[in-house]
Queue: 3 jobs
Job 1
Amino acid sequence: MRRILLSTAKILISAALLYLALRKVDLTELFSRFTATSLFWIAMAIAITFLQIFVGVLRWREVSAACGAPLELARAMRYNVIGAFFNQTLPSAIGGDAVRLWLVARAGAGWRAATYSIFVDRAIGLVALAIVIVASLPWSYELITDPHGRSALLLVDFAALAGGLGFLIFGALKWPWLKTWWATHHIHACAVIANRVIFNVRRGPIIAILSLLVHVLAVVIAWCVVQAIAAPVSFAQVFLLVPPVMLITLMPISIAGWGVREATMGLAFGFAGLAANEGVNISLLFGAVSFIVGAFGGLVWILSAEKAAQGSAQLGVPE
């Protein structure tokens, strides 16, 4: 019952925020801006989304190996594409993580290793996103002149950065009592693995590059959407505005981020002195691209060995 109520609340939040955001949009005018060139840019956005998933797969494999859950490249890519589908269908922006966890655990890696690999991968991605936003703050402050917008940007970003750095510091602690409590034991274990991966001489630079590339590709996807509707927004503006919006969208309070993303993008564009409706337009098409990729992931799920073997014996994970 609690899960049903939570899902219902998220649906209502998505619907309410979408309603408020769409009040700023003239859908007829938006569709009138579509041309043959628009289809090319949307196709580019879809292709780059798959590339972003692949880059995420490369990082996840590095993390999974450190967690004792090694994955073949093809299997990891299939799991991530399937996760993209469930991101669009489950009542959360991170629903795909739960499905990836289930797939890895069911494949024979075990629940602990599977959970650690997903949790650490997500934490590293969050830290990288916060670092990208902090590094761009001098330029963001030039773009966002509204004091409320500046305050919101600082609050959200430094909260994420503090959480991420606190997580890494937690892993460096050696207090014995951390291993006696169930919650602290597992969180500490994840933090230890995160430190081991990030500060590893071989893995660390690879993880850093892949993590930054994932977020840069999100900006490029948004830029392709901008080009598709010929929105009067520069690449630099997209680069400064999209990462904070993506950070806020990670909050699991809506369906696949719908509503939260549109409302936040509209606010961000308004704070930057740009047309709020253009922010909502870009967000809607960004979400549409994710939905199309998720639909492909649904097809992969339907045809996958995991779906066919549902309820039967475990599928082995290669050592």
Job 2
Amino acid sequence: MNIKLLLLLFFYSLTCQICYSQNSDFENFFTPSDSLNLRRQNAVLISEAALGTATLVGLNQLWYADYPRSQFHFINDNSDWLQMDKAGHVFSSYHLGRFGAEMLNWSGTDKNKQLLYGAGLGFAFLTAVEVFDGYSAEWGASSGDIIANATGTALYISQELLWKEQRITPKFSFHTTKFANYRPNILGSSTAEQILKDYNGQTYWLSVNLYSFFKGSDIPKWLNVAVGYGAEGMISGTAQNKDSSTPAEQQRFRQFYLSFDVDLSKIKTKSSFLSTVFSVVNTIKIPAPTVEFSRLKYAKYHLIYF
């Protein structure tokens, strides 16, 4: 997950804050409307348009302005970072779409428009970022990124159409690693930067709600099983781009995880505000006992894995 995608996730959370701050009745304001509320809908659409434009303009000025422009072109980066960046695109597009749909649900917009304009809006923003990349000599539009963006959006929409609920949720977790010390300019010099840049410490999960697949059972409604993907030994995008200061680059390997998780959206609460908080925090995998599988470590058990 790179910093540009995180900026877009921040854009959606900021949209929520702007919308929510407009009402003096704190708790009632967080309650979704049971019918179309044009005032709320207009607030969401105007806020999204304004903040979306500001975000793209900001990216253009702060991120791309320092690099030369070029004709629009594609690059093939599908083998970079052992596809960890692609997992980040799936995660980001899913939650951008989810936040967009939930904000329209809050305004009472009908379900079809939530999926079309809400869930689809995340993919549109991420596509705009790919266009910026395509005109930058430093990067280039990535077909793999576009496919990953479409996958994340499709994961949200397909579950709403098939089950009318989200049974499988992409999530994220992070722990610091030694690899950032080798190339802090690439992998981050502080913890905040490393969360965004150090793919060695990132783990992307598909968290599956068990009760959703076994309705009427005694399984707690909030209990999930999560399957995770990570990678280690990377100080550059490709194995050919090695840094002689570390032998770790020769030990690039994938990691797969099996763990428990909590679906915060399934926790019952009478507070609409808490429901909103749970929805936002539900992007993060809850630390829990975890089994790790990899080519180098085989099976490794973590009492608590971040």
Job 3
Amino acid sequence: MLRIPEGERVDLSSFDAAATPAGPRDKAAGLAATAQMGESLADLQERLWAASTAGDRRRLLLVLQGMDTSGKGGTVKHVIGLFNPSGCRIRAFKAPTPEEQNHPFLWRIMKALPQTGEIGIFDRSHYEDVLIARVRELAPRSQLGRRYGQINRFEKSLADDGVTVVKCFLHISYEQQRRRLLERLDNPDKHWKFNPGDIDERALWPDYQEAYEIALERCSTEAAPWYLIPADRKWYRNWAVSKLLLEHLEALDPAYPKADFDVAECRKRLLSQG
């Protein structure tokens, strides 16, 4: 229900950011359902890691995109917290460094990809190069136009190499973003999360919505579809992303590798030691 159909026009204003499609009935039920998924997610993660020790090249990459305050960091904290952190590779992408600017825009992304058996999480991603780059006119439109095709080919190559790409756009409303920014200003413990530049970015809301609509339309593919997550309700956002991860890991159905040694003999030797 949350998947963006391939090639279809996207109008973000038609999606209710406070909706709870197919979700639990209320916040309490949502929190309980998310916690209940934790055991299954942890088991599937362990199986994925174990399978990699026997040559299984598969891994999963969760891409989180959204406007400021949409909950990218919160999703990492609450959802990825259900996994064993030693099997996760988390990367938050900021403005490119001078070194990164001297390379093609996908260079820094390729360096951060999950290894076999891992679950990778991108807080922002290569899509910044067709989002903020478009809104702030950091690149010529002709170059931006080519980037969508480059992204699609890149993600297809990942899928062909055993990477399950799960891309989530956390859809927050204009009104809810203002409430969350005010909460940060009204709480001294949250001032570190606030940047005066957030107000300037908020003034460009229509431009960002258009940039996201184009990216969702052009880059939701069979190999790497986009999922639109209503994000005004934090509990629903966390439930929906957890559910998507669970469904994709269940589809992979990783298996523990069979022992490549004589189990009975090893047991006999261990017992003989007293």
